[in-house]
Design a protein that fits this description.
binds zinc ion, alpha+beta, three-stranded antiparallel beta sheet, 13% strand, 76 residues
């Protein structure tokens, strides 16, 4: 019997992640915030939620996350 060794090749992640943009000017806020956050959707969400909470006094919640996700735009 021969033992076949399955050479697992690490497949390089091919997906070029699209960057998303969160423009704070589009987000209703009292201060005239002009911040723009760009990155992958996950990165932007992470930072944008943090920003919304710390700078805009929003409550961190799944709802807020969804709201922000909804206003993300493709970078272009
Ligand atoms: Zn802001």
């Amino acid at each position: 019997m021969t033992t076949t060794e399955t050479g697992k090749t690490k497949s390089a992640s091919t997906g070029q992640k699209k960057r998303k943009v969160a423009d704070c000017r589009l987000f209703p806020s009292e201060k005239q915030c002009t911040l723009t956050i760009a990155g992958t959707e996950e990165e932007v969400l992470e930072v944008a939620v943090h920003h919304a909470v710390t700078s805009h006094g929003h409550k961190s919640s799944p709802e807020l996350r969804n709201q922000i996700r909804a206003m993300l735009k493709d970078e272009g």
